[in-house]
Specification:
Number of helices: 11
Shape: globular
Strand content: 15-25%
Number of strands: 20
Keywords: ATP-binding, DNA damage, DNA repair, DNA-binding, Hydrolase, Metal-binding, Nucleotide-binding, Stress response, Zinc, Zinc-finger
InterPro entries: AAA+_ATPase, DNA_repair_RadA, P-loop_NTPase, RecA_ATP-bd, Ribosomal_Su5_D2-typ_SF, Ribsml_uS5_D2-typ_fold_subgr, Rubredoxin_2
Family: Belongs to the RecA family. RadA subfamily.
Strand order of the largest sheet: 6-5-7-8-4-9-10-11-12
Distance between the termini: 87 Å
Function: Plays a role in repairing double-strand DNA breaks, probably involving stabilizing or processing branched DNA or blocked replication forks.
GO molecular function: ATP binding; ATP-dependent DNA damage sensor activity; damaged DNA binding; hydrolase activity; zinc ion binding
Radius of gyration: 27 Å
CATH superfamily of the largest domain: P-loop containing nucleotide triphosphate hydrolases
CATH architecture of the largest domain: 3-Layer(aba) Sandwich
Helix content: 25-40%
Length: 446
């Protein structure tokens, strides 16, 4: 008899190993490698070829029509921007985000808008009852006759609802709450999530029904469940925002039908989610007179130029270890900029408390804000305000040089549109030259 061999497979990403290991070599997750009966290579030898079904034969690419998979607008311009123009029929979209950020509210609004144009929409929730969804729909004005609601946690029942309603859009809130009695494990487990997602995506592809799956997130902000889920879907979107502010950002992490560097801006209001077409004034606090310790910059969120004001405060420290407090900017990046200011600009900051923050709660992670942070700290130390019409952007190197950043032309155009006439970027060369160029600017007091 042939010797029966076993293989070890990661339940998160599908990586295979010849022996058991505690950590997956692909996704680096601990405790996800499980034993399987036989390797796929052995099973492949026993699979016999079969004739394809009628209508599914392989065709030349020139004879395949692309009209059936064109983008269809949802009625929300910011969402269409992120998706690449709209929802593609048969596409599988994974929407992730922290609890309470507004995923369900946004998708209910999308479902109502599509149903308003005559299409049938099926909204399945495993977390709320239909009565609770109706209450939210009344508040957000999302009541439509062709919007069907169901509260189910069984996969077979959900498939039955799909056959009965024949929807033009399917929303599952959330994929971790559904389970199939054909698979072992509890709802939300790796095997259940994999089976549920595969079944729903198979129905979406066969019937050309776009399906939106809401996914939970882990403590570090990534999508919960097996990593294979992100490979199965066509689009992965992340809905993020700060609980202390009403602003929300929708980012595309994966998109087979469009770009992955677009960002949609939304605002949480009492009547639901409202799109923000021009967020230029949300992160600026332009008063009547200049204030020391402030500097405006133009950051890039995807392909969108976003003006942001950075504020800095420097005060004498009362402790042996001065504090470095940041909000909205990377703390390690600010520490590097302060070191460059001490070494290249001659500032004495080793005995000063430094506070750096952005206006409006926006988070900046790109290096293009380095120059604005440095100028804000310089302004705070000297207690001299920069010009009211000055904007700065550029990456600061350890040698004190200002390096160019991407989309410089677009940043300048956005600054000009908002009325900024003085622009400091990589053309000034070094931090010392940038400091001298701002020395003669009008000043004011707080």
């Amino acid at each position: 008899m042939a010797k029966t061999t076993s293989t070890y497979v990661c339940t998160e990403c599908g990586w295979q190993a010849a022996k058991w290991v505690g950590r997956c070599g692909e996704c680096q997750q601990w405790g996800t490698v499980e034993v399987r009966g036989a390797p796929k290579a052995t099973l492949a030898r026993t699979v016999r070829p079969s004739a394809p079904e009628v209508g599914s034969e392989a065709r030349p690419i020139t004879q395949v029509s692309g009209d059936e998979v064109k983008h269809r607008q949802t009625g929300i311009a910011e969402l269409d921007r992120v998706l690449g123009g709209g929802i593609v029929p048969g596409a599988a979209i994974l929407m992730s985000g922290e609890p309470g950020v507004g995923k369900s509210t946004l998708l209910l609004d999308v479902a109502a808008r599509i149903a308003r144009h005559g299409a049938r929409v099926l909204y399945v929730s495993g977390e709320e009852s239909v009565g609770q969804i109706r209450m939210r729909a009344e508040r957000t004005n999302a009541l439509e006759e062709t919007l069907f609601l169901a509260s189910e946690t069984d996969l077979a029942t959900v498939l039955g609802h799909i056959e009965a309603t024949q929807p033009g859009l399917l929303v599952i809130d959330s994929v971790q709450t559904l389970a199939s009695d054909q698979v072992e494990g509890i709802a939300g487990g790796p095997s259940q999530v994999r089976e549920v997602a595969a079944a729903l995506i198979r129905v979406a592809k066969q019937q050309a029904i776009p399906v939106v799956l809401v996914g939970h997130v882990t403590k570090d902000g990534s999508v919960a469940g097996p990593r294979l889920l992100e490979h199965l879907v066509d689009v992965v979107c992340h809905f993020e925002g700060d609980r202390n502010t009403a602003l929300r950002f929708l980012r595309s992490l994966k998109n087979r039908f469009g770009p992955t560097d677009e960002v949609g801006c939304f605002e949480m209001t009492g009547g639901g989610i409202a799109e923000v077409a021009d967020p230029s004034g949300l992160f600026l606090s332009r008063g009547s007179s200049p204030v020391s310790g402030t500097c405006a910059t133009v950051a890039m969120e995807g392909r969108r130029a976003l003006p942001v004001e950075i504020q800095a405060l420097v005060a004498k420290s009362a402790t042996p270890n001065p504090r470095r407090v940041t909000s909205g900017v990377d703390a390690s990046r600010v520490a590097m900029i302060l070191a460059v200011l001490e070494r290249r600009a001659g500032l004495r900051l080793h005995d000063q408390d430094v506070y750096v923050s952005t206006v409006g709660g926006v988070k900046l992670s790109e290096p293009g804000a380095d120059l604005a942070i440095a100028l804000a700290v310089l302004s705070a130390v000297s207690d001299r305000a920069l010009a009211h019409d000055l904007v700065a952007f550029g990456e600061l190197s350890l040698a004190g040089e200002i390096r160019p950043v991407s989309s410089g032309t677009q940043r300048i155009a956005e600054a000009r549109r908002l009325g900024y006439s003085s622009i400091i970027d990589s053309s000034v060369g070094t931090l010392a030259e940038a400091r001298r160029s701002t020395a003669g600017q009008p000043v004011g007091s707080p």
